[in-house]
Every structure is written in C-alpha cells, then in structure tokens.
C-alpha cells in the first residue's frame, strides 16, 4: 500500500519574478503586517543575527515591491472587466497558480454580475458552473454558507487535493478531472466597508496549497482589490442609471413615413452627456429630423436635454416648414430658461415624397450625404450655438437627395471619440461613409453600423478620447 503523497506548496509564478533572497531562512518568517514596520524600522521587532536579519529584510522588501507593482497595475484599470482580469492575473502570480476564475456577484443583489477566467475558455467556465454551487468553494463564499461565528467576513477556502479528498462531490471531482486541475484556492472579495462583492478561485495542475506568506500577501492584495472594485462598481452602476435615463428621454421608436427609411444609433458616455435625436411626423406627410447636444454632463445635462427636445417638438409642429424659425424659438427659450447653458442643434424639415429637405443648424456638425455617386458634406453656413449670442439667426439650406441616398445626421461626440483633431476626424467619417458596401446601402441601419464600426473600430463601449455621447440618425430616401 502506497503512502498518499502530501500536496506540494505552490510557488510564486515565474512570470512575475521576485528579487532572490540571499539565503534560505533558518526559521519560518512571520506574516508581513503593517504593524511590523514603522518609520525608519524595516527590521523585525526581535533582531536576529546579521544573516537572518538581512534575509528577513530582503524578504519583506521583495514582498512590498511585488505588492506595489500589482497594486499600481490595478489602479490603472478603469473598467470592471479590466480590473477583474488584472486581479486574477496578479493573484495567480502571488499564489503560484496558472489558471483561475473571478465571480462578481454583489451581495446587495443590485449587480452587475459576471464571471471571467484566466487560462479558461468560455466553455470551461460553463463546465465549472455545472457543479452544484453549494459544494464549490466560490459558491460557499458567495452564498455565505461558511460564516464566521461572530458573523464576520467569509474566510478563504483551500482544497489541496481534489483527487484524494473522499468527501468531495462526485460532479466536482469529475469536472476537475476533465479540465485537468487538482487543487484550488478561493479568496473572498469582501471587506467590512465594501461588503461581499464576489470571489476569486485559482486552480492548480497538481495537488498544492499556497504557503502561509503567499496566503497573507494575496489576502492583503485582495482587500485592496475589493475596495478598488467597489469604486468601479459604483461608477458602472451610475453609468447604467444615466444611460437608462437617457434612453427613456429619447424616442422609443422611429416613425414610419412613406418614401423614407430611418435608423438611429445612440450611446451615452460614461459621464452621461446631453446628446439627443428626434424624428417626428408632421402635417401633410412631412417629417421633422433633429439632432443636438447640450453642454455639461450628468443628470443636469440629461434633464436640460429632455426639456429642449420636448420644446423643439412643439415648435416643429407649429412652424416646422421653417427650420430657422424653429431654432430661433428654441434659442430664445434656452436663453430665458437655461441661461447658464448652451446647445448645438440641427433641424431638418423633410418632404419624403418630393425628396426635399430644408435644414438649419446652430453650431452643429454638417450632415453627410451617402449615395452611389457621391459622398459629401452638406454646405451649411457657420453659426453660433444656441445661447451664445443675444440673438441667433442663420440661413437655411435646401437639399434634394437622389433616390437611394442616405442623409446622416450626427453629433460631434462621434468625431471627438476618435481622439483625432477635428479635421482628421471629419476625413475619417467621410472615408467611412464612402466605404459602405453596396449591399448595405439599401438599409439605413446597416449604413449607420458600418460608419460606426469604421470610425470607432474599438466599438461604442470604448471610452475614446473623452467618452462623449454618440448620436447617429440615418434617413434613406426611396
């Protein structure tokens, strides 16, 4: 009968090397603690002979340097997803693991909830989630199945040998064998201030358990990481709330008018700006199209945007055939009710059956016409934004799109998100519109999507230069 092999102690990942110690310590070292170090005191409280003291000092400096590197990398992350991946990677180097998973599931139930992996494909994460949650280490942490006697925070859970532990759930052992891991170490993402946010699990290819110092270091790092994740969580929740409010203030659906097809794309930036669009049917089969942007960010800008859009709708119904009059009334209202704000706006009065557009703009970016034989900006006269002058006025412009041409209205957030100077951003937008495939030109939604993918290859969720709102309204004339 063979004697069971004891699990080996996990080592620091070689991908993140630490400064070598001068010699192996003669005795186990105490865990690193802020209380062990004071001003001008980097040594232990009970000085040992010179060699041991030097070794302890080297070990502490190495640990502090490693923690500093990891925390600095974590601080540079600006999104929850990036932070979770960084925490997984850094923690794996601290506990000597190669793979792992992070489960974000705030205890307050307000979300967001997500799972990311390190060295695990999406299918591997799905396989792990088939194990009954109550028997997994991360499930016990998240569900509070192992509370402390005093009702404190959950403790880390180590499973040194998944193959040899007889009381382990059979499905757990089966999944571990299929994915090729033999041990795990789970760390709660929890502090008294932030509460329980989730759990981290690192997986070992062989039976193993982190050493005492490794557990202490990853515990220190985990507490810092939890506070950082809590701040990012609040930012993400605020962004989602602002985006939801912005969507509620914009049209739920676009009108269906004979002779024209409409499509709109909108994304609120991280700070929540005041960009908006509108499309409303007018008497005698006409159509009003508008885009605009209110200065500022946050709930105040959103509220001002909602008021401005509602006012423009009223003016458009009363005198929509004269876009200059619509914007003049809007400018007067803004100056009287929102004296501290300015706004850009563009309003177009369209007669789809006659393929005729009369438009006027106030400090707004010029529309772009995309067709089979031309891709060009509409030449609009330069004018100041609303609220900038004592009296706004600018001439209107008349446009006659050819059958099959699409007119793109947009806000300057689309240009600013590129991070380029404005002249280069305009050139990039023009090139993107000119490169729309012929098969997509019959669908204004496909035209808008192609332009967005080409101008912003990293997607609308990328913060870009300033993380501003993006609005694109496309009208294709039959």
Q: Can you describe what's shown?
A:
α2 runs antiparallel to α6 (212-249) and α10 (422-434) packs across α11. With 478 residues, the chain is α+β, with helices and mostly antiparallel strands. A hairpin with a 4-residue loop joins β11 (343-351) and β12. It contains eleven helices and 17 strands. The strands form four sheets. It has a five-stranded antiparallel beta sheet with strand order 3-2-6-5-4. Strands 8-17-16-13-14 form a five-stranded antiparallel beta sheet, with helices on one face. A five-stranded antiparallel beta sheet has the order 9-10-11-12-15, with helices on one face. The model is unreliable at 1-7 and 9-46 (pLDDT under 50).
Give the assembly state of these chains.
single chain
Strand content: 15-25%
In total, how many beta strands?
17
Q: Identify the strand order in the major beta sheet.
A: 3-2-6-5-4
What general form does the structure show? elongated
**Helix percent band:** 25-40%
């Amino acid at each position: 009968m063979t004697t069971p092999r004891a699990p080996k102690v996990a080592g620091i990942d070689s991908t993140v090397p630490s400064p070598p110690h001068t010699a192996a310590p003669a005795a186990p070292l105490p865990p690193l603690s802020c209380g062990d170090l004071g001003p001008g005191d980097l040594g232990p409280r009970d000085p040992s002979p010179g060699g041991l003291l030097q070794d302890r000092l080297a070990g502490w400096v190495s640990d502090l340097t490693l923690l500093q590197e990891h925390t600095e990398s974590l601080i540079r992350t600006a999104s929850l997803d990036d932070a979770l991946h960084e925490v997984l990677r850094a923690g794996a180097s601290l506990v000597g693991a190669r793979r792992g998973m992070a489960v974000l599931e705030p205890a307050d139930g307000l979300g967001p909830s997500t799972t990311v992996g390190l060295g695990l494909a999406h299918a591997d994460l799905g396989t792990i989630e088939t194990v009954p949650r109550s028997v997994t280490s991360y499930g016990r942490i998240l569900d509070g199945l192992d509370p402390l006697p005093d009702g404190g925070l959950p403790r880390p859970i180590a499973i040194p040998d998944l193959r040899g532990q007889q009381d382990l759930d059979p499905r757990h052992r089966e999944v571990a064998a299929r994915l090729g891991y033999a041990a795990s170490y789970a760390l709660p993402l929890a502090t008294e201030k932030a509460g329980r946010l989730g759990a981290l699990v690192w997986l070992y290819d062989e039976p193993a358990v982190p050493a005492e110092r490794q557990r202490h270091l990853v515990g220190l790092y985990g507490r810092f990481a939890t506070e950082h994740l809590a701040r990012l969580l609040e930012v993400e929740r605020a962004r989602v709330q602002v985006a939801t409010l912005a969507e509620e203030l914009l049209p739920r659906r676009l009108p269906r008018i004979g002779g024209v097809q409409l499509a709109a794309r909108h994304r609120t930036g991280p700070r929540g700006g005041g960009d908006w669009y509108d499309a409303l049917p007018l008497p005698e089969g006409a159509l009003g199209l508008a885009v605009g942007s209110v200065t500022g960010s946050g709930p105040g800008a959103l509220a001002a945007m909602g008021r401005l859009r509602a006012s423009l709708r009223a003016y458009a119904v009363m005198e929509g055939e004269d876009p200059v009059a619509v914007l003049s009334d809007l400018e007067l209202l803004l100056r009287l009710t929102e004296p501290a704000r300015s706004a850009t706006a563009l309003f177009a009065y369209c007669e789809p059956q006659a393929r005729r557009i009369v438009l006027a703009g106030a400090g707004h970016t010029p529309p772009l016409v995309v067709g089979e034989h031309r891709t060009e900006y509409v030449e609009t006269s330069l004018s100041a934004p609303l609220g900038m002058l004592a009296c706004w006025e600018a001439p209107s412009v008349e446009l006659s799109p050819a059958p099959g041409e699409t007119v793109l209205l947009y806000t300057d957030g689309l240009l600013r998100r590129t991070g380029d100077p404005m002249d280069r951003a305009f050139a990039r937008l023009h090139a993107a519109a000119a490169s729309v495939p012929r098969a997509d030109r019959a669908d204004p939604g496909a035209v808008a999507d192609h332009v967005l993918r080409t101008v912003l290859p990293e997607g609308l969720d990328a913060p870009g230069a300033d993380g501003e709102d993006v609005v694109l309204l496309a009208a294709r004339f039959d």
